[in-house]
Amino acid sequence: MKRSSAANCHIKNFDSLKTPCYVIDESAVERNCRILAGVMERTGCRILLAQKAFSAYSIYPLIGKYLSGTTASGLYEARLSKEEMGKENHIFSPAYKDEEFDEIATLCDHIVFNSLSQFYRYRDRCLGFGRSAGLRVNPEFSTQDHAVYDPCMPGSRLGVTAEDLVGADLDGIEGLHFHTLCEQDSDALEATLEVVEEKFSGLLRRVKWINFGGGHHITREGYDIERLERCILHMRDAYGAEIYLEPGEAVALNAGYLVTEVLDLVKNSGVENAVLDASAACHMPDVLEMPYRPPLRDSAQPGIKPYTYRLAGNTCLAGDIIGDYSFDEPLSVGNRLVFEDMAIYSMVKNNTFNGVPLPFIYILEKSGNCRLIKSFGYGDFKGRL
To answer: Could you tell me how far CA 12 lies from the centroid of its own chain?
Structure first.
């Protein structure tokens, strides 16, 4: 899938930034949060930041002004939320570790279980801590064609099917959770809800809250917010339940940049390669995993502008290729390039393969100045090994 491109960033001290670096655009994050807050205000739903996409906690105080809290995928994210956000703290994990569960239960107010066996194993402890237990369901209804991101693909380990619930002991379950979308509009949610209502009507009638999961591209230009709000209001009114959404991308969509420098130019078989100090494999793994072509400021598709280059990382991986881009002027060693939409699934997924350093992290303040909030060095590479 392709993520939408971002507007140009305006950095007053652009040339002074150390590269490679991520730059989090404070104004863009706030713009996204205002849109999400509007949905909450008009529908009464509660929206959480899914930390799996974006967990740069230096900006949590800003996000916390608008959203209801966060959702975690495991103990460490749950601790981060408690320490740095301090609002509602939800968690879902495909499976919990016994030695971690009590700490999770002290941190999180909503705990979602992926299977009946996990729920039965931890039910007494969950309820003993006074936590609200939820069950993730799998409607077995796909609305996308990327299997690696499709929780409803055949054989999926994610969520309980309607067949699994026949005759099941659901005493203690207060919430229903589903997560089936990936960067999609509200028409996919609407279609999914029809199936969820058909297959899980009995569970829906008994729960106190319903969580629509993530994957909602609410802050993307052109997203149908009115349809989303109709979906929320329908489920709220039909079942008398509190409605939650937990987007990650929508909070930081088009709100970050990866600034990199050209280190070398290599020509082979007519292809002009520009070797950068940023790496797809290390610093933007989604480029290889999804795959997708990240937007790049002041560039175009190959062949559109006079000079086309293949942009590649500085690792030994032959496939460490970001993509082909064209430019108005030829590139030179030392040129700075700015990849856009680099706040999400970048800092949370990066690595030090080949000993490549992790990028610095800056916040682009509303004034246009960049403030360094984190630097990395050899100790970060060595320490994790």
So the answer is: 28
